[in-house]
Each structure stands twice: as structure tokens, then as C-alpha cells.
Design brief:
alpha/beta; GMP Synthetase, Chain A, domain 3; nine-stranded mixed beta sheet; four-stranded antiparallel beta sheet; 10 helices; binds zinc ion
């Protein structure tokens, strides 16, 4: 069979499996979750109405607000004696959201994470340094589960001062490092500053939990001497590990036997056309502790139809382009920070880091983009600023100011980088 035909057959088999699992999920929720039962009744949908995969559109969405309203255990759909663990999100933008796992959920999560690691080329011979936090937070524990399931050696260092992080990396001979991309950059720059590169054995970096540009990716790879992989996930959906970009780096494969991914218009909730950019909504297909129907992730991406060069039949989405909450309204134009880093990624002489300052002066909005000059690029800063202003104007349609700083002047973060400072409403 030709590769494309084989892909179609596998797609059809997958669709059959997804439909059967969707039907089971809806039927179980109808019986076990008073909250979802009420929600489905309000919508006039009963489990037997789900006859095809397209019928998923009959189902109501679930949003983060509902998770908060049901704090802490209102959305659990398994009896409490079957819940073996809970995790919770950090709650930086409101009340914490709690998620519960049965033994099988933990097992599935471990397998999904192990699959991510294997796709990144990690083997049992690797030593994997885990830098995210442990505890209620899903990241540290989730990675550890996967590393152990794969049979590699976990080095669960967690978030410690950079000195200790690097000491562990050298002493234990870590070959894989896991963290946020911001932290990857911070570590890379520290390694360069201290001249430690020759003492490292790193070869793979797995980074996630925030949007990071191709330029930042290139910089991290160069500084750490690794190939990087972009991992996705969120507390509400197990945690990290629900998808990863393969070695071809043409989008992110996701585990479609566990999830249905839809791309919807974030305003109307209507499905987007294949390949069109919108908000990702995810339905869990195998989860027992806290199944979610059409969960609105607020992540902006698109489906990438067709087979991947790697030959794996897991479908793909694009790398996350931004979050619906990150959208900047500026002089009547909707802008995502990701559009700015797209411009920077293709521009010679500036680094990957940037900060967008929004202000209102004399009743008029202004936007300043602060970027760093690459050391010794030999380019004139005034000229670079002028070219950047023109490129932003041409590609995004707005006029901004550009300030070019020395390399390393923008803040570096061990967690997620803040990219936008908006003083227009707060009157700061
Ligand atoms: Zn692939």
C-alpha cells in the first residue's frame, strides 16, 4: 500500500475507536456525573444521540470557569475510593482547579508521557534531569512517571537555584533535560557564562508549558548542544505529555486514542475549517476520574492534516501559537504576542527575547517592542529598529516603536516568561 493509503486506513480505524470511546464517555458521564447529566439535559442531548463523530458538536463545551465553580471535587466522575491522586493548577489567574485520577488514569498518563519521551529519542540508557516543580503541580510528577515507565533514570532535581541545577547536571551526567523553554534559555546562558559546556553530556531537551519561538528554540539548542522537543499538556487534561513534536518538527503529534481535538472559533464556538487557526477544544476518551467534554483550552493552534514524514499515524496540530487570553487589542487590531516573535524569528541581528509595552498617552494607544541586539552582529541599531518597524507594519498592520537593548538586558525567567506589559487600563 502507498503511505497515503495506509494513512487513510489508519485514520478510519482511529475514527471508529474514537467514536466507540466517545459514546462510552458520554454514557458514563450521564450516569456518574450529576453535573454533566444536568448539563446534557439542559442541552437536550442524551448519550444515544451520539451516532457519528460529528455528533460531538451536539455536546456542550466545558470551560475553566466551570472547573473553578465545581472546586474542589464537583467534576469527579468516579467514586471517591477509586480516586488515587489529585493534582491542582497553580491558580495564578483565579481559584485553583483540581483534577482527579483513578489508578488507570495514572497508568494512561505514564504511558502517554513515556511515548513522548520515546518519540524524542530517549531510551532506558538516558539520565533525565527534571527541573519543574513537584507537589500539587502536575509537571514534575508527570515527567517522573514517564521516565520511570520508559525505564530511563530520573534525576528529580525540581526547581532549585541554578548553581545546584548545574552541579547536578554535571555530577550525574544528565543526557536529557526537561523544563520550560524560558528555563532552558536561562540554563544555556549560565552554562555559556561559566564555560561548563565541555563538562555536559546533554543531547535532548524537552520543553513546554509556554509558547516559544523558532528563534528561541535555535538559541537553546546552540547553547545546550541538544535537539529540542516541544511537549504539550495541562493540569485539566492529566498534565504534560498529551503530545510532542517528532524529530521532523512539523507540528505536534497528539494521542488520539485518548483525546478528540477540535479547533473552534473562540468567539462563536463554531468549528473552524480544516487547517484554519482557532481555539483548541479537547474531549477525553479514556479518562475515569475526571472526564471532560469539549474542554476549551484557550490555546490557539490549527490542525495539520495529512501524514507526517516520520510515518507515525498520530494526527498533528501546529505548535501552540498563543492563548486566547494573551490577545492584545491595539488600535482596533487583534494581535497575539506570537505574531511579534514570528517577525523577530526571521530577523537578523536580534535575539529571541522580547517584551511588549502597551501604554496610553494623550488618549492614544502606543506599543513599544523591546528586543536585544545579538552581540557582535555588527548591525546599526537605528537601522535595525527602522526595518523592524516596517516589517511589523507590513505583516501585522500596526505601527509600533522598537527599542533595541544590549544582549541579556531583558529579564530571564526560571518559569514562564512575561511577554506583555499593559499599563493602559491599570493606570500604572
Ligand atoms: Zn511526525
Amino acid at each position: 500500500m502507498f503511505a497515503r493509503d495506509r494513512f487513510r486506513t489508519q485514520e478510519q480505524e482511529l475514527a471508529g475507536l474514537q467514536l466507540a470511546r466517545l459514546q462510552t464517555t458520554v454514557a458514563c458521564l450521564y450516569v456518574r456525573s450529576p453535573y454533566y447529566r444536568q448539563k446534557l439535559d439542559r442541552q437536550g442531548v442524551r448519550p444515544e444521540h451520539i451516532r457519528t463523530l460529528e455528533d460531538i458538536r451536539l455536546l456542550p463545551f466545558t470551560d475553566k470557569e466551570e472547573l473553578r465553580e465545581n472546586y474542589p471535587f464537583g467534576l469527579m466522575a468516579a467514586p471517591e475510593e477509586e480516586i488515587v491522586r489529585i493534582h491542582a493548577s497553580s491558580g495564578t489567574t483565579g481559584k485553583k482547579t483540581v483534577t482527579g485520577y483513578t489508578r488507570r488514569d495514572i497508568d494512561d498518563w505514564a504511558n502517554m508521557m513515556a511515548r513522548c519521551l520515546a518519540m524524542a529519542g530517549v531510551t532506558p540508557a538516558d539520565r533525565v534531569q527534571i527541573t519543574p516543580g513537584f507537589g500539587l503541580w502536575t509537571a514534575g510528577v508527570g515527567f517522573q512517571l514517564g521516565v520511570e515507565r520508559l525505564g530511563a533514570m530520573a534525576i528529580p532535581v525540581g526547581p532549585v537555584p541554578v548553581e545546584q541545577q548545574l552541579e547536578a547536571m554535571v555530577d550525574f551526567g544528565a543526557t536529557v533535560v526537561i523544563g520550560t523553554s524560558s528555563y532552558g534559555l536561562l540554563l544555556g546562558e549560565e552554562i555559556q557564562r561559566r564555560g561548563l559546556r565541555d563538562q555536559l553530556r546533554l543531547r535532548v531537551g524537552i520543553f513546554g508549558s509556554e509558547r516559544w519561538s523558532d528563534k528561541m528554540r535555535g538559541r537553546i539548542e546552540e547553547l545546550l548542544g541538544v535537539e529540542t522537543f516541544d511537549i504539550i499538556g495541562m493540569t485539566e487534561l492529566y498534565g504534560p505529555g498529551i503530545g510532542l513534536d517528532c524529530r521532523y518538527h512539523q507540528g505536534i503529534h497528539y494521542w488520539a486514542e485518548h483525546f478528540i481535538f477540535e479547533i473552534i472559533d473562540s468567539v462563536t464556538g463554531e468549528p473552524c475549517a480544516p487547517g484554519e487557526t482557532g481555539e483548541l477544544a479537547a474531549t477525553t476518551l479514556t479518562r475515569e476520574g475526571m472526564p471532560l467534554l469539549r474542554y476549551r483550552t484557550r490555546d490557539i493552534t490549527r490542525l495539520r492534516p495529512g501524514p507526517c514524514s516520520c510515518g507515525q499515524n498520530y494526527p498533528r496540530i501546529d505548535r501552540i501559537l498563543g492563548r486566547t487570553d494573551d490577545m492584545i487589542k491595539f488600535r482596533g487590531v487583534n494581535i497575539y504576542p506570537g505574531q511579534i516573535d514570528h517577525v523577530l524569528s526571521g530577523f537578523d541581528g536580534v535575539g529571541s527575547e522580547y517584551l511588549i509595552y502597551l501604554d496610553r498617552v494623550g488618549g492614544k494607544d502606543s506599543m513599544e517592542v523591546r528586543v536585544e541586539a545579538v552581540p557582535d552582529s555588527g548591525r546599526d541599531r537605528g537601522q535595525m529598529a527602522g526595518e523592524l518597524i516596517e516589517q511589523v507594519k507590513n505583516r501585522i498592520g500596526v505601527t509600533v516603536q522598537v527599542q533595541i537593548l544590549d544582549y541579556g538586558q531583558l529579564p530571564r525567567s526560571a518559569k514562564k516568561s512575561k511577554r506583555v506589559v499593559d499599563t493602559r487600563e491599570a493606570g500604572l
